[in-house]
Amino acid sequence: MKIYFSGSIRGGRQDAQLYQEIISHLKNYGEVLTEHIGQMDLQEDAITDIEIHNQDMAWLIASDVIIADVTVPSLGVGYEIGRGLEMKKPIYCFHRGEKTSAMISGCKEISTYKYETLEEVKGLIDGVFEKFQD
């Protein structure tokens, strides 16, 4: 299974370590195409915004499922989720705190889960992937 993990990059570097842990857990279920999201020191200056967009779109198209942490609001994550919806990809969003965007939680095609700890989100992810094994 090819997994597209999405999380805020330019505005969410405070969660890079958490993303890295989530990505590590996701590897139990398949290939994570966007492993770089969990890197503490991303070298975004090495490629252009156009190259970033085109590479991410290629990964999004190739993916079987989208897993997103939507705790930190991000235009890029929202864009990826919207494009994933157009492609009819299964999308699972996870967030800390009481609420996330109504555009995410209010969309019946997106499954949304609230979590507080790393262990809790890992358990929720396990539940998501159990559905794929049925």
Task: Please give a structural write-up.
With 134 residues, the chain is an alpha/beta fold. The chain has one domain: Rossmann fold (3-Layer(aba) Sandwich). The protein has five helices and five strands; from the N terminus they run E-H-E-H-E-H-E-H-E-H. The chain has a five-stranded parallel sheet with strand order 2-1-3-4-5, sandwiched between helices. Helix 1 (16-26) links the parallel strand 1 and strand 2.
**Strand percentage:** 15-25%
Report, as a whole number of angstroms, the end-to-end distance.
14 Å
Q: Into which percent range does the helicity of residues fall?
A: 40-55%
Mean pLDDT: 92
**Structural class, from helix and strand content?**
alpha/beta
CATH topology: Rossmann fold
With strands numbered from the N-terminus, the spatial order across the biggest sheet is: 2-1-3-4-5
CATH class group: Alpha Beta
Shape by Cα distribution: globular
Low-pLDDT sequence parts: none
Radius of gyration: 14 Å
The structural domain count equals 1
- CATH-derived architecture: 3-Layer(aba) Sandwich
Q: How would a crystallographer describe the biggest sheet?
A: 5 strands, parallel
Kindly state the number of beta strands. Answer: 5
Number of helices: 5
N-to-C order of helices and strands: EHEHEHEHEH
Function: Catalyzes the cleavage of the N-glycosidic bond of deoxyribonucleoside 5'-monophosphates to yield deoxyribose 5-phosphate and a purine or pyrimidine base.
GO molecular function, one term: 5-hydroxymethyl-dUMP N-hydrolase activity
Binding site for substrate: 4-10, 19, 80, 101-103
Keywords: Glycosidase, Hydrolase, Nucleotide metabolism
